[in-house]
Amino acid sequence: MTVPGIGQSGASPAPHVGSLGVIISLPAELAAEISAKRVSYAGPEAAVVPPHITLVSGKASDSWDEAASYVREVAAAGEPFTLSLRGTGTFEPLSPVVYLNVESGAKECARLHEALLQGPVEHLLEFDFHPHLTIAHDLDSGAMESAKREMAGFAAEFEVTSIGLFDFIAGGWALREELELGGNGQA
Q: Which UniProt keywords apply (predicted)?
């Protein structure tokens, strides 16, 4: 899921009925570190998509407002958790992706994903859900191998305290709300 709208401010256009995404964002310092590595493999265009972990990339089943309300309920019922990223994996040969493994926190990500799909939210990816953080996607084999090798020893850990609710507007994903886990409102 591309998320160039992170951090946008000002009045937002009405939600696009056909799109809805839910992600886990990274702390700023960690996001900057991973962004720099992604740029080194794919070039400056890789910086357009901030590093994130996708929980749902899809759409509202019916009403966007009802789906957004349901995402708020899931977030409020959730609890903060520790997420660790350790080493690399790949979806090759099915999909040309190199990613950082979600080690601790994978079960919590899967629980959030499943809870989100129990309501009016659809996940529209062709593959089963596997929590991960994409480092390289659809690059030449040399860049893919470099990403796998250079990031194999990578390790980081952070506390997940919120999830981001996104909508696809004007050709890009835009943050609509950052929702506290276990809270009743925005983070």
A: Ligase
Query: How many structural domains compose the chain?
Result: 1
Length of the chain: 187
Residue 54: CATH number of its domain? 3.90.1140.10
Q: 3-class SS at 50?
A: coil
Q: Is residue 66 included in any domain, yes or no? A: yes
Instruction: Tell me, yes or no, whether 27 lies in a domain.
Output: yes
For the segment 94-149, what is each residue's pLDDT rounded down to a tens digit? 889 999 999 999 999 999 999 999 999 988 877 889 999 999 998 899 999 999 99
Long-range contacts of 101-110 (CB under 8 A, 24+ apart): 101/132, 102/53, 102/131, 102/132, 102/133, 104/157, 105/81, 105/131, 105/160, 106/131, 108/81, 108/83, 108/160, 109/24, 109/53, 109/55, 109/83
Model pTM score = 0.86
| Cis-peptide into 27, omega within 30 deg | no
